[in-house]
Design brief:
Layout: E1 8-9, H1 19-27, E2 35-38, H2 46-53, E3 61-70, E4 73-82, E5 85-87, H3 89-97, E6 102-104, H4 107-114, E7 132-134, H5 136-140, E8 144-147, E9 153-157, E10 168-170, E11 175-177
Parallel strand pairs: 4-7, 7-10
Antiparallel strand pairs: 1-2, 2-9, 3-4, 3-6, 5-11, 8-9
Pfam families: tRNA_edit
InterPro entries: YbaK/aa-tRNA-synt-asso_dom_sf, YbaK/aa-tRNA-synth-assoc-dom
GO molecular function: aminoacyl-tRNA deacylase activity
């Protein structure tokens, strides 16, 4: 149980996962330690989800997709951070990716490139050339809720497991507390 969500093994419920997420979970060693819960798709956004399902903001992690250019090539990355924080996109993330300007990827572009639904994008199943930048606070959380690639599901996993995601890089200073 997470909040008042009934979770079950994610690999048993592919109907609650985007296709790239299901494929990635089947091939990732952490897939068997990841659970999923069905949710109301109208409540997929973090604040509404947490309020309805009794999940604290510090138990919910957001995955934001950023894009920047270097030498004419667009570079994408995912940032995984707790809902109580905000990514330092123009500082730490920009420097880490080695780009001059960085912004959040446009919604339609992020959806098309990931094969996931907006509001459900998750670090599991992203294109393999994209680094996944993880804030250390995520790893310190006993468990976190993240998207499942679709708006009608949420994944649950131990926070420390995020460091084991393919292409994950733990980045100190990635996020700052909201306040």
């Amino acid at each position: 149980m997470m909040g008042n969500l009934k979770t079950e093994p994610a690999l048993d419920r592919p109907d609650l996962l985007a296709a790239p997420v299901a494929d990635a979970l089947r091939s990732w060693a952490g897939g068997d330690r990841t659970e999923v819960a069905a949710i109301d798709p109208g409540l997929a956004d973090t604040a509404a989800f947490c309020a309805e399902y009794g999940v604290r903001l510090d138990e919910s992690a957001n995955c934001v997709i950023v894009a920047g250019k270097r030498e004419g090539v667009v570079r994408y990355a995912a940032c995984l951070l707790l809902a109580t924080t905000r990514a330092d996109v123009n500082g730490v993330v920009r420097r880490h990716l080695g780009v001059r300007k960085l912004s959040f990827a446009p919604m339609d572009e992020a959806v098309a490139l990931t094969g996931m639904e907006y509001g459900g994008i998750t670090p599991i199943g992203l294109p393999p050339e994209w680094p996944i930048l993880v804030d250390p606070r995520v790893l310190a959380a006993p468990s976190v809720v993240i998207g499942s690639g679709v708006r009608h599901g949420k994944l649950w996993l131990p926070g420390a497991l995020a460091a084991e995601l393919p292409h994950a890089e733990v980045v100190e200073g990635l996020a700052r507390e909201l306040g």
